[in-house]
C-alpha cells in the first residue's frame, strides 16, 4: 500500500472540497493520502465493497435519513467485519446525537463536531487515526502470520522443495530458493540481505530465498522460519535414519527369506499391505511407519530353523511342525533383546502373527483383543501374500481364491474389522 485511503462520507459538497484541500499535502510515513468521497451511506457501502485497505472513514450521521451514518458504522463493523479501519463520526448536529451515547453504543474511534475540525484539528485527528491504523494493522498482520505458521504440518517438510511450497502457501507469494554462492555473510542460521532476500543454512548447506514481495514482520517471520528450518533438519535426519534402518531390516529379512528359497519381495509386500491397513487404524504417522518397518521382521526366527524343515517340499511331520512353530518365539527373543521401540513392536509381531482371532493359533493361543493389533494386521498381510505367491511346497493360489479364503476366515483366523478394511483396500492390494 503506497498511499493512505481516507473515506469521507458527507452529503455536503463544501465539506468534501474543504477536506480535500486540507489533506492534499499531508504525508505520513512518506505516504500521501488519497481521499475517497461518498455523498450518502448507500454510496459509501458500494465503495467500501470495492475498495480494499481503507484506513480511515470520516462519517456524518445525518444524510439520507437521521441515522445513515450510524447504520454505516454497523455495516463496516458487523457486515464487512472490518475491525481495523478507524472510524470518526463528524457531525454538525451534536445535540441530536450526544457524543457519550454514540461512543458507548457504537464501535467508533473518535467523535468530532464539524465546527471544531479546523485545518490543524483535522490534520491532528487524521494523523492520530492513521498512526493507530498502522499499529493495529501491524498487530493483525503478526497475528495472521502466527496463525498461518501454527497450522503448518512440519512433519511434511522433508526437502527444500517442501519448504518452498509451504512458504508460498503460507505467505501467498512466489518464492525462489537456490544454493548460495557463498555463506560468509551467514552468522546465524538466517541472515537478511534485504527486505525480500534471505540467506540461511540447513545441515551446513547454504541457500538463498528470494521473495516476490518485501517481507513485513521480519523479526516474527525469522523466529517462525528458524523453527521450520530446525524441523526440516530433524526430518531429514529422521528420514536418513529410517532409510538406514530400512536397509538393515531388509538385509536381515532377505537373509531369512533366502534361506527358505524365497525373495525379499515378500517382506516388502507385507510391509506395504501392513502400512495400507495401519493407515486406517492409527492416527500417528510415525507409528504407522514403525509398524510397517517392523512387519518386515515377522519371520526373522526362521533363521534358526533347519534347512531340511524350512525347505521341505512335502507336508511336515508333527515333530517337524512343532519345530517350525518355534520360529515365533525365537524371533521374539532375537528382537526383544534390542532396546529400541521399533524392535519391541517387531518382537511382538514375530511372536504373535500366527495367533488366530478365535484362539486356535500359536504359540500362546491368544484370541480377540488379547492379540496385539500390530500382529493382527501383519497376520492378514502375511497370509495374503504367502498364498498369492509360489512356495516350495505349493503353487500360488488365484487371487479370487485368496480373497475368498480371507473372507471365509473372518472371525476365525482374522479380526473381522481388519478383514473389512482389507477388502476396502483390495484394489490397491491387487496392484502389488
UniProtKB/TrEMBL annotation:
Boundaries of every HD-GYP domain copy: 241-432
SUPFAM superfamilies cross-referenced by the UniProt entry: CheY-like, HD-domain/PDEase-like
Keyword terms: Phosphoprotein
Residue stretches making up the Response regulatory domain: 5-129
Stretches assigned to the HD domain: 263-387
Domain of life: Bacteria
Pfam annotation, one family: Response_reg
Gene3D superfamilies (UniProt xref): 3.40.50.2300, Hypothetical protein af1432
Residues bearing the modification 4-aspartylphosphate: 60
Protein name: Phosphohydrolase
Amino acid at each position: 500500500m503506497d498511499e493512505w485511503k481516507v473515506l469521507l462520507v458527507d452529503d455536503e459538497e463544501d465539506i468534501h472540497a474543504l477536506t480535500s484541500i486540507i489533506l492534499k499535502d499531508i504525508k505520513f510515513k512518506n505516504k500521501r493520502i488519497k481521499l475517497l468521497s461518498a455523498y450518502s451511506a448507500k454510496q459509501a457501502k458500494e465503495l467500501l465493497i470495492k475498495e480494499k485497505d481503507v484506513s480511515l472513514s470520516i462519517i456524518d450521521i445525518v444524510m439520507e435519513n437521521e441515522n445513515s451514518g450510524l447504520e454505516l458504522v454497523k455495516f463496516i463493523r458487523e457486515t464487512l467485519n472490518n475491525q481495523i479501519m478507524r472510524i470518526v463520526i463528524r457531525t454538525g448536529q451534536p445535540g441530536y446525537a450526544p457524543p457519550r451515547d454514540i461512543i458507548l453504543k457504537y464501535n467508533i474511534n473518535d467523535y468530532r463536531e464539524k465546527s471544531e475540525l479546523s485545518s490543524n484539528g483535522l490534520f491532528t485527528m487524521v494523523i492520530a487515526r492513521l498512526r493507530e491504523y498502522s499499529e493495529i494493522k501491524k498487530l493483525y498482520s503478526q497475528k495472521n502470520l502466527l496463525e498461518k505458521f501454527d497450522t503448518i504440518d512440519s512433519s511434511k517438510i522433508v526437502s527444500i522443495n517442501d519448504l518452498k511450497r509451504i512458504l508460498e502457501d503460507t505467505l501467498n507469494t512466489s518464492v525462489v530458493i537456490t544454493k548460495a554462492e557463498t555463506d560468509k555473510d551467514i552468522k546465524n542460521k538466517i541472515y537478511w540481505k534485504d527486505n525480500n532476500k534471505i540467506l540461511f543454512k540447513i545441515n551446513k548447506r547454504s541457500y538463498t530465498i528470494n521473495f516476490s514481495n518485501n517481507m513485513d514482520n521480519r523479526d516474527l517471520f525469522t523466529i517462525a522460519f528458524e523453527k521450520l528450518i530446525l524441523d526440516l533438519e530433524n526430518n531429514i535426519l529422521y528420514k536418513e535414519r529410517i532409510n538406514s534402518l530400512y536397509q538393515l531390516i531388509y538385509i536381515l529379512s532377505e537373509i531369512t527369506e533366502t534361506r527358505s528359497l524365497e525373495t525379499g519381495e515378500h517382506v516388502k509386500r507385507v510391509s506395504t499391505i501392513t502400512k495400507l491397513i495401519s493407515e486406517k487404524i492409527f492416527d500417528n504417522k510415525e507409528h504407522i511407519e514403525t509398524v510397517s518397518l517392523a512387519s518386515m521382521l515377522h519371520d526373522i526366527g526362521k533363521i534358526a530353523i533347519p534347512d531340511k524343515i524350512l525347505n521341505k517340499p512335502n507336508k511336515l511331520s508333527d515333530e517337524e511342525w512343532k519345530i517350525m512353530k518355534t520360529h515365533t518365539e525365537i524371533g521374539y527373543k532375537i528382537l526383544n533383546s534390542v532396546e529400541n521401540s521399533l524392535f519391541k513392536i517387531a518382537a511382538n509381531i514375530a511372536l504373535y502373527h500366527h495367533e488366530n482371532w478365535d484362539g486356535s493359533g500359536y504359540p500362546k493361543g491368544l484370541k480377540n483383543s488379547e492379540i496385539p493389533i500390530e500382529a493382527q494386521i501383519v497376520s492378514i498381510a502375511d497370509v495374503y501374500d504367502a498364498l498369492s505367491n509360489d512356495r516350495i511346497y505349493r503353487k500360488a493360489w488365484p487371487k479370487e481364491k485368496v480373497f475368498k479364503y480371507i473372507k471365509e476366515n473372518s472371525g476365525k483366523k482374522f479380526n473381522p474389522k481388519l478383514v473389512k478394511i482389507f477388502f476396502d483396500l483390495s484394489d490397491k492390494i491387487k496392484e502389488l
